[in-house]
Design brief:
This protein has 681 residues and is α/β, with parallel strands linked by helices. It has 19 helices and 28 strands. The strands form six sheets. Strands 9-10-8-11-12-7-13 form a seven-stranded parallel β-sheet, with helices on both faces. It has a six-stranded mixed β-sheet with strand order 5-2-1-4-3-6. The chain has a six-stranded parallel β-sheet with strand order 14-24-23-15-22-21, with helices on both faces. The chain is globular, with a radius of gyration of 28 Å. The N and C termini lie far apart (56 Å).
Length: 681
């Protein structure tokens, strides 16, 4: 009997072109079976979604404008890919409006996209075990659990362990996602029950990734843990999914398409398999807290040892309780202190060395200075390929030389001795970076005739890879350094020791960046630093009127301790702002970007697309209240590596993803589409 197969090719087919193609064969093939097909001149693998007898589609075949092709070869007629993962690929493709073949590629080992003869032979012999799918009975559906640990690490470990033991005892499997690779080693030490867990991350070879994938497919893996790439491992009898540090931006793919968030996929996978999903966090994302208030997530917190949990109000607290001092740096200038260190911080930095204590100094920028400014004409030295100021980097050793570095295209140049614009010699370094903090701190200690100080810097200039970063963390824990200066790269709570002093040298530049998430990110930085502080945290700022800083000042300075109302007030204010301007969670953002070497073409293409979107919205009769199409406008950094970037931002309140996609279908394939972007710049 002849069968018609609906096949998803392992290939990128731009939308809105058909994503599932029909072929015919005389062999019977199950859903999830693997076949080899011809797509143009290429021979590629594909996955069968549906196989029906040819006579049932006789009329459709006659009416089709295309000639039906036969498959080239049946690789495996059994259901190699579980129905769950086919459904997950369909969800990914629709939600992120990306090629279905690309979605499937992101959920399977690399060998499927570039199959070798040996790999195809292996696939032919595979006979996977039965996979669990969600039941229709509403009683098995579970709300995701948001576990708010509030830096009670012992309680979080106990909670994870209880859930792991319960799941494994029921002969079900576990998927454990972490945002960064270092956390795999950390949790394996903290949770002995994970000692035999299969580990997967992007740094593994394709062969090793396939080995783990095959092991899981055959039902021989009961626990897989790893970074966002671990979501592609199809575990049989999946009963539990843990997403630790659920608020982390590392779960979002930013370097390759499709631009998906592994947390969103984990939630969907839990829905498809009826597995329990736990989102662990010390300070959750605003989106997750909003879902708690809407009844979509269940909130759990560490149980107190003494009081009755039934009488306890829901706490939202952060961190430990060191003394907090907020310094208005404008007052320091008025008092003729022109140092980047306030008098308060200077006094504490002296005590750190004198008492053989440790300190952490946070700065949100690498380098010695953020740029070079001419004091005569105001010219700022910029990268010739990108519309952004160079960052000045001082030589790390005597062999190297000082450089201007572009943090977007990595271009390097020697610093000018005179202004390129007006030829003035009155050149000034502006801004503050990690190297400047280190240089000024060394000078400060020498001026005060203090000895025995040892300073380490942790940023991507000093430590470009994980082994180098890990060594700095280890040395700091071993007290080989008094002071660690670093960027967000160092904010890894489990790797840092508790220190007597932490200071935010400045966080102000973050608030000048037009990104609606900046207040949330700033709060998270403060929270992480507080969690590793024993005695004193000093927050230096020039913008005391910022509402995050105001709340820290008004609520924390008076009591010198954290109070649950602080975070509640901050979240309430932030949600009010987001509701007013229709930002998530009150809408969905979709960022559209176009790059071209010709600036006029970039602008022209952006304006053409804006008109298409407006006309399409009118044709679809989309309510204006459900849709805003903003732009087009140049990107915040309008030129990177000699490519001019224009953007359009869509704010959508549409609940029907297919209706939303009907709007997006007018976007040409050479545009970048980022659904739920982390950054809107």
């Amino acid at each position: 009997m002849m069968h018609i197969l609906s096949v998803i090719p392992f290939a990128k087919i731009p939308r809105p072109a058909p994503q599932i193609l029909d072929y015919f064969t005389s062999e019977k093939i199950s859903t999830g079976g693997i076949v080899q097909i011809s797509l143009g001149s290429r021979k590629i693998l594909g996955v069968v979604t549906v196989a029906v007898p040819a006579h049932e589609k006789k009329q459709e075949i006659k009416k089709s404008a295309f000639r039906l092709k036969p498959i080239d070869r049946v690789v495996n007629s059994a259901g190699i890919l579980p129905q769950t993962y086919l459904s997950l690929a369909l969800f990914l493709s629709d939600y992120y409006y990306t090629s279905l073949g690309l979605a499937l590629k992101s959920l399977t080992p690399a060998f499927f996209s570039h199959p070798t003869k040996k790999f195809v032979e292996k696939l032919s012999a595979l006979r996977p075990c039965a996979f669990k799918t969600a039941q229709n009975d509403i009683t098995v559906q579970q709300k995701p659990v948001l576990y708010l640990a509030s830096h009670n690490e012992k309680a979080k470990i106990r909670f994870y362990e209880q859930e792991l033991r319960k799941t494994l005892k029921n002969k079900e499997s576990v998927l454990f996602l972490v945002p960064e690779i270092y956390k795999i080693e950390y949790f394996k030490k903290q949770l002995p029950i994970l000692k035999d867990a299969s580990v997967i991350h992007a740094n593994l070879t394709p062969a090793k990734q396939y080995e783990i994938w095959e092991k899981a497919l055959l039902g021989r893996a009961n626990c897989v843990m790893g970074s966002r790439s671990a979501i592609q491992i199809p575990l049989a009898r999946l009963g539990l999914i843990i997403v630790d540090e659920e608020e982390s931006d590392f779960y979002k793919s930013f370097d390759q398409q499709p631009y998906v968030n592994a947390r969103s996929l984990a939630l969907k996978l839990g829905e498809l398999t009826s597995a329990k999903v736990i989102l662990g966090s010390d300070l959750p994302s605003i989106d997750s807290l909003w879902n708690v208030t809407q009844g979509r997530y269940e909130l759990k917190t560490p149980k107190p040892k003494t009081e009755n949990p039934a009488q306890r109000p829901v706490p939202i607290t952060i961190g430990a309780k060191p003394k907090i001092t907020i310094v208005d740096m404008r007052e320091e200038l008025r008092n003729k202190n022109y140092s980047i260190f306030s008098k308060e911080l200077q006094n504490h930095l002296k005590q750190v060395v004198r008492n053989n204590k440790q300190a952490i100094l946070f700065i949100n920028r690498r380098g010695l200075a953020s740029g070079i400014l001419c004091r005569d004409c105001g010219h700022i030295v910029k990268c010739p390929k990108c519309d952004i100021a160079f960052v000045f980097h001082q030589a790390i050793n005597s062999v190297a030389s000082n450089k201007l570095v572009c943090h977007h295209c990595a271009r390097e140049e020697n610093p000018p001795k005179i202004c390129p614009q007006c030829k003035s010699y009155r050149i000034k370094f502006i801004g503050t970076g990690t190297q400047r903090v280190k240089t000024e701190l060394e000078q400060f200690y020498r001026r005060n005739e203090l000895t025995n100080w040892k300073i380490a810097t942790l940023d991507l200039d000093i430590a470009k890879d994980w082994p180098a970063q890990k060594k700095i963390f280890q040395d700091f824990r071993l007290r080989k350094y008094n002071i660690l200066i670093g960027t967000q790269l160092m904010l890894k709570e489990q790797l840092l020791p508790k220190v007597d002093l932490t200071s935010i040298i400045t966080i102000d530049p973050m608030f000048s960046i037009p990104n609606f998430r900046m207040n949330e990110l700033a709060l998270r930085i403060v929270d992480k630093l507080r969690s590793v502080t024993l005695s004193q945290i000093i927050f230096q700022t020039y913008i005391m009127d910022n509402f995050v800083i105001q709340n820290v000042h008004n609520n924390l300075l008076e009591t010198n301790k954290l109070h649950k109302n602080v975070i509640n007030k901050l979240l309430k204010k932030e949600l009010e702002n987001r509701r007013e301007f229709s930002f998530p969670p009150f809408s969905q953002l979709i960022k559209l970007s176009y790059h071209d070497r010709n600036p006029q073409k970039s602008e022209r293409e952006a304006k053409i697309l804006k008109n298409k979107l407006v006309i399409q919205a009118q044709n679809l009769r989309l309510p204006q209240a459900d849709l805003q199409i903003l732009g087009p406008a140049p990107a915040f950094i309008p030129r990177v590596n000699n490519r001019y970037i224009w953007q359009i931002m869509i704010k959508s309140k549409m609940q029907d993803v297919h209706l939303r996609n009907a709007l997006l279908r007018v976007i040409p394939s050479n545009w970048k589409i980022d659904v739920d972007p982390i950054e809107i710049l």
